[in-house]
Amino acid sequence: MNADVRGERRTFADLGPRVVSSLVLAAVAVAILWAGGVLFALFWLTTGLAVLWEWQALVGEVRSRSRFLIGAIGLAAAAAFASYVALGIASFVLIAAALLAGFVAADGYRFVAGAGVLYAGALVICVIALREADAFGLAAVAWLFALVWGTDIMAYFGGRLVGGPKLWPRVSAGKTWSGTLIGIVCGALTGLAVALFGIERAPALALLLLGLLLAAISQGGDLAESALKRRFGVKDSGALIPGHGGVMDRLDGFIAACVCATAIGAFRQYPFIAAGLFSW
Question: Do 155 and 118 reside in the same domain of the chain?
């Protein structure tokens, strides 16, 4: 067997598990998005708790269960307020939980322990508030799904098929400039296609530009999580999802994009957050 064939097989060795797990997770996420309401909130609260657990496990074993319990109570309360789009109260509760979790952490790890509560809680608050904010909530989250998934998929294939210089080898050994740029453009176009399909008279140019920004931010979220794992000397945040690692590994880009999208929508048209993304 020649070296090129062996290299190609090694390059795509994880493709099978990644595809299967991605399809299953996507189907579940879309079905729950469509259902909305309490089921949607509980699903994302559970997801946030998984992210919180993985983050606190990275920080270390010293009072890890206490940190998780404090964060979990904060996430649950914040999720309840986010369901009514009360972002101010939800954020206050989350910050209080983060400070308390940081207080009980070991010396030298207080900041990062508290940051984990904020990270997991930001996902929970933003995705729930975005879905429940107004009539555009379903379309907004579907647009984000398409944008982030399109970015991840095309960055994966673009980087492996085109190759070239590494984006930031000290943080992410596999991520290339070619894959990142291909992923950003394709993700923005995929999101735009979903928005045009689901929203009458959607502002195409504005959504394309916003999609490029959020796709780039999603790639930044991926790099940030890679840097965190480097900091603690681990390859994956967990082993729950075949081909992907942990829940954090699968959602790093979505968390970054969702938080930024919610911030933009809230800044433009609070409390009609989703409408703020589509009205230009």
Answer: no
